Structure formats: structure tokens, C-alpha cells
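ASSEMBLY PREDICTION REQUEST
Request ID: AP-0331
Submitted by: J.K., bench scientist
Number of chains: two
Total residues: 298
Priority: normal
Notes: Please return the full assembly, not individual chains.
Input sequences:
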Amino acid sequence: MNLNALWEYANPKKFIRTTERVLPWVSVLSVVALVVGLIWGFFFTPDDYRQGSTVKIIYLHVPAALMAINTWLMMLITSLIWIVRRHHVSALAARAAAPVGAVMTVIALATGAIWGQPMWGTWWAWDPRLTSFLILFLFYLGYMALWEAIENDDTAADLTSVLCLVGSVFALLSRYAVNFWNQGLHQGASLSLDKEENVADVFYWPLLVCIAGFVLLFIALVLLRTRTEIRARRMRALLARERMR
Amino acid sequence: MPELGKYAVEVLSSYAVSIALLAVLVGLSLWRSRRVRAQLEEVEERVRRDGQD
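STATUS: Completed
Returned structure:
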């Protein structure tokens, strides 16, 4: 595979043309995966022997939490591409992803609080994972506010990229907080590449389908929103040119 | 409808909150996409027209 060919998509016109074809497929697949996964998990899985029916919250909480962290990591990669190669599409993709990540973080926090109340006896605790997630959410808000606050697109992209680098510390902490500080209420990772799974098979497969649905939804939304940001940037440039005449 | 027992409120409210948030996110993204596209077409048309004058 020629990796250099990837840079062709940094051309806004090429990006818009390609995503025009890809977007409908990704959107349909995301809806199918979400509907199948959520119906499977909600209607056709048993209650957990300890957590009762609250285990059904896992199909929303875990995928949303995964996406909350991984959206920031995607923003980190695209911000680094902006800093190194100055491709506008990458900076705009990071901008487009931020609201998606923020919503995923809110879903993870809200479902976690609703799940935590009956299981832990409290909606909230200053537990390492919960606290790092809250800070990650504040970083999302700060990142979006910074884009809105600066008129010049390139300056905004520079400053938000730096903020993204700083916030990456909290994105990683959100993921590994339980391992770093062996305390707090939150359990370890439900899914992990490096050790035995902590979820029984009966919950595992519908959970994987839900995760696939969330990932595909994320891709669809980021493609759609990046196209919008590219058009909005072109419009601002045309209006600025018009004002200078 | 599965039997959710004493945790019905927690489970159903989790689903309601999450689906509502996702629906708002998708709805706003589509709405803004259409609006910006229409505005850009308008501006491009105006620039083309002004360029011909």
C-alpha cells in the first residue's frame, strides 16, 4: 500500500468527492450495527447475577466511553498532522470530531452515574477514572470554545492543536486511571487486548456489535462534519475576499 | 419488553438519555451541513455574478 497516496485526501476537493461516495455506506452500516447491537443487548441477553438488569447499560456506557477517549486520540493525530504538514483538512477534521467526542463523554458520564447509583450507592465519586473523564469533558468544551473564539482559522488550528496535545494526557489517564491508581469505585477495563476479557460471552458479542455501531457512527459524523467545516472555511475565505474588494 | 425488575428506571433512563443525545447530535450535524452547503452555493453564485460584471 502506498502511504503517500493518503495525503491526496488532504486536498479538500478530493476529500469531499471521496466522502460523497463513502458516507452513505458508513451511515447505513452504523445504523444497522447500532439497531442490531442494542436490540440484541436489551431484549435478548439475561440479567447479571449481581447487577441485575443494570448490566444492559453496558451496551451504551462502554462504547461511549471508548469513543470519548479515542475521539481525543484521533484529534491528537490530526492535530499533529496539522502542526507538521499544515494540511487544513486534518485541522478541520479535529474540529469536526470535538463535539462528537464531547457528546460521547456526556453519555459515558451520564450512564455511568445512572449505573453507579444502584451499584455503588452514589451518583458520583471522586474516583480516578470518573474524575479524569470529567476533566476530559472540560477539555472538549475548552477545545470547542477556543475554535469559536479565534477568527483566523490558521491561528485557531495552531492553538487548538497545542491544547489537544495537553489534553491527551487526560485522555490517556481516563483510559489507564484504574491501572495507575489502584483505588476508587470503578472497575478495570471491561475489554482489553492484553488480558483475559472481564465480560461473559453472553454480554460480550452484543457489546462488540454496539462498539462497532458507535465506531461507524463516529466515522459517519466526523466525515459529515468535516465536509461542513471545509465548506464553512471556503465560505469565510470568499466573504473575506469580497470584503477586500 | 424484557423484565427489568427494580432497576427499570435506571436502565430505561440510560437508554432514553443516550439515544436522545445521539439523535440531537446527528440532527444538528445534518442541519448545519445543509445550511452551510446552501449558504456556500449562494456566496459562490454571488462571487461568480460579481466577477462577470
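REVIEWER COMMENTS: The first helix of chain B runs from residue 8 to 52.
SIGN-OFF: pending second reviewer
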